[in-house]
């Protein structure tokens, strides 16, 4: 079965006062039908920008300068950013929800207005039908008393509730893919868990695929089937969740996993942070971007440019010269 | 919502009372004895102390300040603002005659300011960085620097004297001769409305740019809506909020402007009256004008607050 | 997950620190980035220079009439011609610069000081202090500036001193409101709580945080208000209130020249143009300052 979404060598740049930032530097990945995929990395690694690029929501000083985004057989990047084709994809075929529920909803429009406008636009419903559907959706995502609350404004809802509204909005037109950009980062831990569980249920119910973009490996551990790890604008490791957690191979991934506190560790085990800071993305050297912080580096890493993604097993790829299997640190 | 309205009305009334007290005190604390002024104006003879005391009693100026104030306020509520020192006629008569004229000028300036300023600002923001935007920004920057009175003199020279296209002064009632009245008003209204248009355009552009950067606009784009819908439905309501404040502030600006413009173009409105009565030291007029202008501005502010409440639901439940 | 930068990561020759641009450099770069702002800055400096060195620059005496040479057209001897009393227009414009800038600066300084004090008091103490001060400020603010200045000037008489008082009173509410708003929002901010929890005394917290936060909007407001004040003063002197002839002020020069509009239009044009230039300069500099100091103010100021 062909992939639902295939991204090839996506490059997105930002022109800043200090230079050109290659936020996304040749990213390739794919999403299958009804799959949950995790995209993990630190702030600034390009994960959000890559998803915004897929939706062509990048505006000046940013620019998508290379690559393809093949969705349903079409390269989306061939469409004009705000042209009718792209607009018919956004919201209806690929939807996105964002990190900050507090600011992502329009404060002067009611929740109902913001929910129904998509239904009217993409699903061609009339106002009455759209309103009914909106109430149903609100109930599905767990908002109590939906009938009364549909005419409320965003500031009447808590952060968790607003995020539920966003999820309802995202799924309202039955998109094939829902992209969730740090959906739970701004929420407290209990709400996080509830929300993720609900998202998984909803996505299954709607038979959509879900992309969870996050910096928190723990979030994707439970729900994602496959994971991509990003660093400095490129994917450095990809594989099934089981393999990534069971046999991480890239030094960065290993480092990330060492940072997560685990209940099954012996008492007194120390958390090992990754030394150093994320790199400055302007004027990156051709060598591996993780080099300054790597504990596995070998001679080859200093001389050769950053390697391509190479397979270590069937579905497990890494971008590394060092053989971390043998040199466990 | 009702309590919101009531509270705002009460606050406005308090401010009005404060203003009236300030004005009253100011006038009474004037250097110079109003009695002597009244008497000296009307005749060249000198008066004896008794006669002065009698006139004082006649005008009620020998009572305590409190009583005088309440008397005055009572008079106002009955439409009586006292008599002009110079002309011995009721102040309210002249003021009432002039209000419609100034109102005519002011309303036109205000409406043009919004009708032209807001759309121009929006277009400029949406087409940011294009030649259109640069043009608008340059013109509006110029618009807020031109001294209105100087522009009036200039226009008078070009269109009145030189080209002889437009009449250079006066005001005929639109009911008497609508077309002539319109020709008379073109230059004054233009001078008066230039600043409001320019500052409204600037402010609208500014706040629309701010709004367009917001997260919820990005959400709107991600939903696949058209640019037109995003601007009119999502951005506009948010972007107009600061513009409403500006509109509220534009009213005192316009009223202030009428003072100068009416003088330049010799239009018999309230602004001109204010200037002449200040120069002639005819204080009852000044008092009356201050109260009326104050009340008008407060009314406008009140309406502005109401519009705020309608635009931004977060404020309604203050 | 990430700790401090380790300095010995220079293996590939690069020290991994974020690009360090000093605040001053950034300010300078943003401020000078727009041509109009630079232009405004140059004009502003020029006018200040002219105002300070007026007696050295002006070719003639601004007061002395020369009845043999009245209403002359611009010529080599009189670049902008002469007025009805034979006084050189260029000289009077130069001296008018002095009047305008002097009054502008003094008025803004007074308005600023009084307004800031009132605003801070109202914001800091809240309660009745706030209500009384703010209602008073509202009353003043709801009033057209020119009219207010007119009334006060009427009360106190004409002359420079009273014009200054009148305009200061009219301008003050803007600062009071600004300051009060700033104080209120700083009061509520989390970092005040944080500072308190670290034991800093109330007054110290207030002063430090409030001052730091308010500097930018106040500076921008000052430049903007300078333009407004100069225009207002010109309007007042045009009406015959405030600075009256023979003192050279651009407003009364325009008024005087009105009657000679057909004969010698430059008498009206020149002072108006000077006015425009100065106000434009201040406005542009104000814009530039605002963008360079804190672009977030763009929606507000």
List the helices and strands and how they pair.
The complex is a heterotrimer of chains A (329), B (318) and C (301).
Chain A lengths: L4 E12 L2 E13 L4 E5 L6 H8 L7 E10 L2 E2 L8 H6 L4 E4 L3 H4 L6 H12 L4 H14 L5 H4 L9 H13 L5 E5 L7 H17 L3 E6 L2 H7 L2 E6 L2 E7 H6 L4 H9 L39 H5 L6 E4 L2 E3 L11
Parallel strand pairs in A: 3-8, 3-9, 6-7, 7-8
Antiparallel strand pairs in A: 1-2, 1-4, 4-5, 9-10, 10-12, 11-12
Chain B lengths: L1 H27 L5 H9 L6 H10 L6 H13 L13 H36 L4 H13 L4 H15 L15 H35 L2 H8 L4 H38 L5 H10 L3 H29 L1 H4 L2
Helix pairs in contact in B: 1-12, 5-6, 5-8, 5-10, 6-8, 7-8, 7-10, 8-10, 9-10, 10-11, 10-12, 11-12
Chain C lengths: L22 H9 L3 H18 L1 H4 L31 H37 L1 H15 L3 H12 L3 H29 L1 H8 L4 H38 L10 H8 L8 H28 L8
What attributes characterize this protein structure?
heterotrimer; A: 329 residues; alpha/beta; Rossmann fold; 2 domains; 8-stranded mixed sheet; 4-stranded antiparallel sheet; 12 helices; 12 strands; 32% helix; B: 318 residues; mainly alpha; 13 helices
Number of helices of chain A: 12
What is the CATH third-level topology name of the largest domain in chain A?
Rossmann fold
The helix-and-strand class of chain C reads: mainly alpha
Q: What CATH architecture of the largest domain in chain A would you give?
A: 3-Layer(aba) Sandwich
Domain module count of chain A: 2
CATH class wording of the largest domain in chain A: Alpha Beta
Provide the residue-averaged pLDDT of chain A: 86
CATH superfamily of the largest domain in chain A: P-loop containing nucleotide triphosphate hydrolases
How many strands in all of chain C? 0
Globular, elongated, flat, extended or rod-shaped: what is the shape of chain A? Answer: globular
Low-confidence stretches of chain C: 1-20
Looking at CATH, the homologous superfamily of chain C is: MetI-like
Helix percentage range of chain A? 25-40%
Spatial separation of the terminal alpha carbons of chain C? 41 Å
Secondary-structure element order of chain A, as H and E? EEEHEEHEHHHHHEHEHEEHHHEE
Structural class of chain A: alpha/beta
Order of helices and strands of chain C: HHHHHHHHHHH
């Amino acid at each position: 079965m062909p992939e639902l979404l295939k991204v090839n060598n996506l490059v997105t740049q930002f022109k800043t006062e200090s230079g050109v930032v290659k936020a996304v530097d040749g990213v390739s990945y794919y999403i299958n039908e009804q799959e949950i995929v995790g995209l993990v990395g630190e702030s600034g690694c390009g994960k959000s920008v890559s998803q915004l690029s897929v939706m062509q929501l990048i505006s000046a000083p940013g620019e998508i300068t290379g690559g393809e985004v093949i969705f349903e057989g079409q390269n989306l990047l061939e469409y004009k950013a705000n042209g009718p084709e792209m607009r018919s994809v956004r919201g209806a075929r690929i939807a996105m929800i964002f990190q900050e529920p507090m600011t992502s909803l329009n404060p002067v429009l009611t929740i109902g207005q913001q929910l129904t406008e998509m239904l009217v636009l993409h699903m061609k419903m009339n106002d009455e039908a759209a309103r009914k559907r909106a109430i149903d959706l609100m109930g599905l995502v767990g908002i109590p008393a939906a009938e009364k609350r549909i005419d409320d404004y965003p500031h009447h809802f808590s952060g968790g509730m607003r995020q539920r509204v966003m999820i309802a909005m995202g799924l309202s037109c039955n998109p094939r893919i829902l992209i969730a950009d740090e959906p739970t980062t701004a929420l407290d831990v209990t709400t996080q868990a509830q929300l993720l569980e609900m998202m998984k249920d909803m996505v299954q119910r709607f038979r959509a695929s879900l992309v969870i973009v996050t910096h928190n490996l723990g979030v994707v551990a439970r729900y994602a089937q496959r994971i991509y790890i990003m660093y400095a604008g490129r994917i450095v490791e990809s594989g099934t969740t089981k393999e990534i957690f069971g046999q991480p191979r890239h030094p960065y991934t290993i480092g990330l996993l060492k940072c997560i506190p685990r209940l099954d560790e012996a008492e007194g085990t120390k958390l090992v942070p990754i030394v150093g800071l994320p790199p400055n993305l302007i004027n990156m050297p051709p060598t591996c971007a993780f080099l300054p912080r790597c504990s596995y580096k070998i001679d080859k890493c200093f001389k050769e440019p950053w390697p391509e993604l190479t397979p270590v097993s069937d579905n497990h790829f890494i971008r590394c010269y060092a053989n971390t299997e043998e040199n466990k640190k | 919502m009702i309590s919101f309205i009531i509270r705002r009305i009460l606050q406005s009334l308090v401010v009005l009372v404060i203003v009236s007290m300030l004005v009253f005190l100011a006038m009474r604390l004037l250097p110079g004895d109003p009695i002597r002024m009244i008497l000296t104006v009307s005749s060249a003879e000198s008066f004896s102390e008794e006669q002065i005391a009698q006139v004082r009693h006649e005008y009620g100026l020998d009572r305590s300040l409190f009583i005088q104030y309440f008397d005055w306020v009572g008079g106002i509520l009955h439409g009586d603002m006292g008599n002009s020192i110079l002309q011995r006629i009721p102040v309210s008569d002249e003021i009432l005659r002039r209000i419609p004229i100034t109102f005519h000028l002011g309303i036109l300036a205000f409406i043009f300011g919004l009708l032209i300023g807001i759309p121009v600002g929006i277009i400029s923001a949406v087409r940011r960085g294009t030649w259109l935007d640069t043009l608008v920004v340059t013109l509006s920057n110029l618009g807020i620097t031109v001294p209105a009175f100087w522009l009036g003199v200039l226009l008078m020279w070009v269109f009145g004297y030189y080209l002889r296209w437009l009449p250079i002064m006066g005001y005929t009632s639109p009911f008497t001769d609508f077309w002539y009245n319109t020709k008379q008003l073109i230059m004054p209204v233009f001078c008066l409305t230039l600043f409001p248009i320019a500052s409204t355009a600037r402010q609208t552009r500014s706040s629309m740019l701010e709004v367009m950067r917001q997260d919820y606009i990005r959400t709107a784009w991600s939903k696949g809506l058209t640019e037109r819908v995003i601007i009119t439905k999502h951005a506009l309501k948010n972007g107009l909020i600061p513009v409403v404040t500006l509109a509220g502030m534009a009213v005192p600006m316009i009223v202030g402007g009428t003072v100068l413009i009416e003088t330049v173009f010799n239009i018999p409105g309230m602004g001109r009256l204010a200037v002449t009565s200040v120069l002639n030291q005819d204080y009852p007029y000044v008092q009356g004008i201050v109260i009326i202008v104050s009340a008008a501005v407060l009314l406008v502010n009140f309406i502005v607050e109401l519009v705020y409440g309608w635009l931004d639901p977060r404020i309604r439940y203050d | 997950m990430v700790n401090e930068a380790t300095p010995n990561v220079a293996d590939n020759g690069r020290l991994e620190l974020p690009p360090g641009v000093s605040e001053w450099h950034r300010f300078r770069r943003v401020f000078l980035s727009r041509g109009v702002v630079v232009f405004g800055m140059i004009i502003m400096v020029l006018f200040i220079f002219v105002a300070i060195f007026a007696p050295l620059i002006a070719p003639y005496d601004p007061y002395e009439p020369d009845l043999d040479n009245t209403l002359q057209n611009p010529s080599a001897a009189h670049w902008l011609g002469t007025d009805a009393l034979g006084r050189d227009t260029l000289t009077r414009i130069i001296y008018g610069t002095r009047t305008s800038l002097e009054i502008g600066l003094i008025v803004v300084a007074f308005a600023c000081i009084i307004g800031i004090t009132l605003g801070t008091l109202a914001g800091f103490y809240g309660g009745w202090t706030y209500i009384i001060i703010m209602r008073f400020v509202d009353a003043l603010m709801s009033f057209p500036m020119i009219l207010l200045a007119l009334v006060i000037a009427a009360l106190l008489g004409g002359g420079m001193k009273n014009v200054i008082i009148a305009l200061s009173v009219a301008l003050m509410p803007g600062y009071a409101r600004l300051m009060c708003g700033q104080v209120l929002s700083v009061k509520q901010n989390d970092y005040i709580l944080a500072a308190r929890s670290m034991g800093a005394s109330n007054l110290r917290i207030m002063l430090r945080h409030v001052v730091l936060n308010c500097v930018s909007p106040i500076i921008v407001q000052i430049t903007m208000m300078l333009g407004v004040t100069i225009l207002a003063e010109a309007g007042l002197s045009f009406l015959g209130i405030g600075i009256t002839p023979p003192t050279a002020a651009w407003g009364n020069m325009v008024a005087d020249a009105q009657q000679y509009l057909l004969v010698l239009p430059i008498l009206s044009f020149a002072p108006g143009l000077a006015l425009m230039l100065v106000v434009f300069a201040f406005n542009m500099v104000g814009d530039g300052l605002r963008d360079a100091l804190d672009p977030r103010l763009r929606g507000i100021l």
